[in-house]
Amino acid sequence: MKEPKYLVPGDYMADPAVHVFDGKLYIYPSHDRESGIPENDNGDHFDMRDYHVFSTDNIEGGAVTDHGVVLSVDDVPWAGRQLWDCDVAEKDGRYYMYFPLKDRNDIFRIGVAVSESPAGPFLPQPDPIRGSYSIDPAVLRDDDGAYYIYFGGLWGGQLQRYRDNKALECPSLPADDEPSLPARVARLSGDMLQFGEEPRPVVIRDEAGRPLTAGDNGRRFFEAPWMHKYNGVYYFSYSTGDTHRICYATGDNPYGPFTYRGVILTPVVGWTTHHAIVEYRGKWYLFHHDCVPSGGRTWLRSLKVVELEYRPDGSIVTIHGTDE
Ligand code: FUB
User: Residue 87's closest CA among 63, 64, 111?
Assistant: First the structure.
């Protein structure tokens, strides 16, 4: 499949997380809607209220099944507003959805909801993960059976409000020549419901081994972490936010440090860019979104998929987005 394909033409879906469960591809997107809230740097216009799940056993032309609403903001006891990008992991036949949501103090926390089926519905836990903050959880099940949760996002994602897992009195971004704010990673607890350890920084270094700086906004982490493995190598990919790229860095373990490798996806139409990378039936795919169908309305995004190619040295061939 060399040409990108829209997956859910009848609705606005974004921020895909994708996994293979029971031999099928399951897609867990954010569900965009027209809320009428004006656009701002805080992301208030992304006022999503529920999640749908989609599945297919033929990504190259087969039907994509919509399993309907699987979790709604009204189901979450601690909910304030804004259900942003989620992810789902399977352990021992149970499915755990990790979702960012603002609590009643307008602080993003990460909640967990549980299901017996990858297609939901998901039942939320009474409280968010203890010590959780910021947005965009993504879970890796490593080959040894350990689960790692990656998370974080700047600006509206509130990561600049924290250092060393503690809330700051005054949120701040580092100066341009200081190390950029990293995503975070933590091993999950055995019951999948809490962090199993204090979250650690996901450090990305340049070819010379120096951490990327905050001013290096063409390469530094902004939001949308995703982790996959290819030929035993850990690929940490992410959005650069205000430069609108999906970039990647590689390492030899789930915590890093990772070395910056390049651009996976150049800017798409719309401010945000967000993705998942998954192997299915021997091919690799990049799931992502853009705002072409909504005429560029940045809060109404549409889900897409395109094949991803690796070179023999493990580098990824750059895909050109719709903003070129
Ligand atoms: O969907 C809301 C936010 O937009 C996500 O959490 C970010 O990754 C960006 O795609």
Answer: 111
